[in-house]
UniProtKB/TrEMBL annotation:
Membrane topology reported for the UniProt record: Multi-pass membrane protein
GO biological process, one term: respiratory electron transport chain
Protein name in UniProt: Cytochrome b
Location(s) in or outside the cell: Cell membrane
Taxon lineage: Bacteria, Pseudomonadati, Pseudomonadota, Gammaproteobacteria, Pseudomonadales
Length: 179
């Protein structure tokens, strides 16, 4: 059996950085939509929906890759609470990447609107149209988006802490490709 790699698999790194860009774009697009109800920002919604579905599909691929490839080990001298925080924050990130697009899809369905990915591709509704359900899902989607933003900031801070302060190879495991 080969020794564990000090780096993530190339496909895992590609998915990580692609989804990082997509999620940051989604957070900014969502903030732009929440800040205005103007019809002039309708184009943001037309961008937000297919990007959300793309994230949903990619997170499924990403989970398959994560469970089918070896992950680099965390540093042996990392305190137990930091190991636990790393594991829990990754579970939270994956959960939010799955739940937020599904909530958005359900929210749009509950509003009675079609979930259009393009001018000719419509997804089926996943909940019946209902204003009360829509209001609940909209609020939940917003709160969880804030939680995702906070979690991404903490994830970024931890990565920079490992890369710039501890210099323990954790950041490099997702940045560089060779051992």
């Amino acid at each position: 059996m080969s020794a564990p790699s000090n780096h993530f698999a190339p496909l895992a790194r590609l998915l990580h950085w692609l989804m990082a860009l997509m999620i940051l774009a989604m957070l900014f697009i969502g903030a732009g939509m929440a800040a205005s109800v103007s019809e002039r920002h309708e184009w943001l919604l037309h961008l937000h929906k297919p990007l959300g579905i793309a994230i949903l599909l990619l997170v499924v691929v990403r989970l398959v890759v994560r469970f089918s490839t070896r992950q680099p080990p965390l540093p042996k001298d990392l305190p137990g609470w930091q190991v636990l925080a790393a594991k829990l924050s990754h579970v939270l990130l994956y959960a939010l990447m799955l739940v937020l697009p599904l909530l958005g899809w359900a929210m749009i369905s509950a509003a009675g609107d079609p979930v259009m990915l393009s001018s000719s591709l419509q997804l089926p509704s996943i909940v019946p149209a209902n204003p009360t359900t829509f209001a609940f899902l909209r609020k939940a989607h917003g709160y969880l988006a804030y939680l995702l933003f906070l979690t991404v900031l903490v994830h970024l801070a931890a990565a920079l802490f490992h890369g710039w302060i501890r210099r323990d190879g954790v950041l490099e495991s997702m940045v560089r490709g060779k051992d």
